[in-house]
Amino acid sequence: MARRKFTREQMIAAARDIALHRGAGRVTLEAVAEVIGSTKGAVLHTFPNKLTLLEELLRSMCQEWDRRFDEIQSKTTGDALSAYIETWEQSDPQAPSYLEAVAVARAEDPKLLEPVRQAYQRYGNLMQLDGPIATDALVAWMACEGLVLLDLLGLHRFDQTTKDAFFSRLKAIAAAHNGEGT
């Protein structure tokens, strides 16, 4: 009987599912093999060790978030802060995020956080957090991160009406930062 081949993407998806539903510390080569219905040896053929698997998982999660951000930014006024807020507002709780990537990296090896640090640096630079109302823009950016972190960690979940009001206020702050409002 021929063995079924599993793609790199299927293995990454399995690792992400494990991190999301069981916890980042439970991502192992054995667990990925179990989820995809294969052997550890088959996973080792693609990922020589757990660190390589986690690096690829983080890269995949960050690329997906970047893709959604870039898509939203291309449809808006081009203002990075507004696009960032909108990306979080439209995010599916099951979709990859930088915060999820941070949880995975932190559980295994803090050195894995370097690509995530670079991504946050990129977003900070794109948002041009300087000028007369930079503090308001920074507050809006961090508020997005805080809301998602609370939800991701299961510490607090806001109802949809509260989330809508929250994002509406953040969008107003972003518009003021972009010179569209007062």
TrEMBL record:
Keyword DNA-binding (UniProt): yes
Keywords: DNA-binding
InterPro entries: Homeodomain-like_sf, HTH-type_TetR-like_transc_reg, HTH_TetR, TetR_CgmR_C
Keyword DNA-binding: yes
Domain called HTH tetR-type: residue spans: 5-65
GO molecular function: DNA-binding transcription factor activity; transcription cis-regulatory region binding
DNA-binding region in chain numbering: 28-47
Signal sequence, start to end: none
Protein name as catalogued: AcrR family transcriptional regulator
